[in-house]
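[job 4471] stage=fold_predict status=RUNNING
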Amino acid sequence: MELRLLATFEKVADVLSFTRAAAELGYAQSSVTSQIRALETSLGVDLFERLGSRIRLTEAGERLRPYARRMAELAEEARSAVAATAEPSGPIAVGTMESLTSYRLPPLLEYFHHRYPKVRLALRPTLGDETRQALRQGTYDVGFLMEAETAHEGLESEVLAPEPLVLVAAPGHPLAGGSELGTADLTGTPLVGTEPGCAYRDLFEAALDEPRFLEFGTIEASKRAVASGLGIALLPRVTVAGELAGGTLVALDWEAPFTLFTQLAWRRGKRLPAHVRLFVEQARRLVSEQRG
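[job 4471] inference complete, writing structure tokens
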């Protein structure tokens, strides 16, 4: 089996799209399709089920996936070993979430774009459980988490910083200006939230009695809804710093009964290639030094 074919298979298995895999690999879609067919022919099995415009792995494809990943890691390790003085290069699949991608990671992404252009970052938007599972399976090289827990089964993780949270409302909201609000004071108040699976949304919901959430999916949509008076929202302080400074949102005097930590994680026992270790080191420096 050619490493080139396995690398293409791994990419298609990760994104479950021939078109997207071709774009990320810099190939024509027809080339990706041909490579997958060549690999299937050499193995004598189908690796993907074609379901109209969608695809999914067959049982054979699922069995091949961890081997393809291990071979890719060994090939990258060998490349790094014989080219230790060369410019860092190679792909990094990064699991992340909206609040971190938009508000914590820009300095890190900008640094790599200008300093290490041969390191190809692919950001994959996923939430906690999905990110952890993808790391364990080897789909992601590293993943950013925002969780209360700092130990994760099967993963190595490093706390980069505590993530301050703030309960926000429109300036004219009935709770605005109140002091030392308790959880009971929030009972019956309409709440604006991101999608379930987001750690701070789920913990906030668990802390309340009969919460009534309006789900707006994204942080930006949630902020607009709060500013329009549709409810209050618990969000990372870094995501609303501009609105608080500009007066379109106000912080309520309520303290969350839990603490979240922004973390970087990778599969336990995985030997990180040099360019991935570099990413971890710079994430530690650039993300840790930021404060909400």
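[job 4471] summary: The chain has a mean pLDDT of 90.
[job 4471] exit 0
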